[in-house]
Here is the input.
Amino acid sequence: MSGFDQARALWEASGEAQPSQAKSPRRLFVKSYGCQMNVYDAQRMADLLAPEGYAETAVLEEADLVILNTCHIRERASEKVFSELGKLRVLKAARARAGRETRIVVAGCVAQAEGEEIFRRQRAVDVVVGPQSYHRLPALLRRAESSRAVLDTDFPAESKFDHLAAPGLRQIRKRGVAAFVTAQEGCDKFCTFCVVPYTRGAEVSRPVEEIAAEVARLAAAGVREVCIIGQNVNAYHGETPDGGAASLALLTARLAEVPGIARIRYTTSHPGDMDESLIKAHRDQPHLMPFLHLPVQSGSDSILAAMNRKHNRADYIALVADIRAARPDIALSSDFIVGFPGETDEDFVATLDLIEKIGFANAFSFKYSARPGTPAAALRNQIPDAVKAKRLLRLQDLLDRQRHAFNRQMVGRVLDVLIEKPGRHAGQIAGKSAYLQPVLMEGGLDRIGEIVRVEIVSSGGNSLFGRLLPEEPAQEAPR
Ligand code: 5AD
Ligand code: SF4
Here is the structure.
């Protein structure tokens, strides 16, 4: 097997390669890790490079430019990047032997956090660019033609959003009927375990009308659902046309006016920034979906204090009660960290107890991972991995049971479902319920983009299976 084939086989084994036919002068392969904001940033990088003559490909070995848009949140996410770069080095060398040049760009939070170190660990990398300066990518790539190791991890004064190219309508359609839009970036909370305030910087909000214009463009291409994203999105305070500051509730109300937009979601939120106007919006705004990702991280007051979360267990319980009073059917989701330094068995049991009390429809849970430069990494009472692993299993078992129970209770009900794409089997289509559950049913591809009524007939744990009720109009957000 040649180095080229070997690299391809390795990459395919990691499940990334897909077929593509078209040929064009320059090809771009972008791979994103981590959160939704990276998915969004990766799309914007592709939009930015389209006018430079780069067309996206899903076939790695035909790419003249490979961008890894990286995540630094936990050690494993970070280390994955360097193993992928090792494979890319082999591919780059094989392509060079065939007379083809390949540029490798490392973008995202690992780029921000590791900077120069990336060139030292992997010489095949051409450009390292941080999340706040990727609008300069075309210029950086031009510089890379004549010099090695081009680095830009600035937090520039200018907003990257003023320099990004809008996606073409065809490109938007290819990406589907549900889209992300960044409203806010960065975080001022400084939870002691988290790298985000260092990699993404201080909280910044985009102006209301700038976001509305982006959403209008998405809607014109057929997007029906937008998820407003930000590292701490409910701290949103974007400028209004009259020079004031808008809350997230005001932004969701404004985006609901965009013709074609039927559903609005937002993620991710800090409990401390869940203000009254946003809670009321869940009661009053029919476009706002009854699903809320509201990370609590732990159910123990002493751990919450050590995490610098600025809320305690009672605050969270009271907040959830207020939210449920406003929107009784709201489905809640959370992030949890087990094995934070100093976490005792009692602390952990308090987390299990909080989960029992609240009842979550969905959740993400992680073993604590010490991140260089964060305050918690310097704490002496780190928890052994075996203890973390045991706790995580127990926690996930409880969360899985809650998720399955939440999904099972949908059986027999009729739900509104936004049809997003073909299902896995022929004749099947797939969409999402208002509660963000994947729903599969028999149906034609012409239903993509429609909100349809579906009778849920069974639950497969993670997905629901249903029967289309073509005669019934959807109930939510009539338009
Ligand atoms: N270790 C483990 N999990 C972490 N998260 C953030 N930082 C760490 C860390 N150092 C989790 C939190 C956060 C989610 C995005 O990732 O639960 O809400
Ligand atoms: Fe990280 Fe905490 Fe900010 Fe979330 S709120 S991004 S966990 S520092």
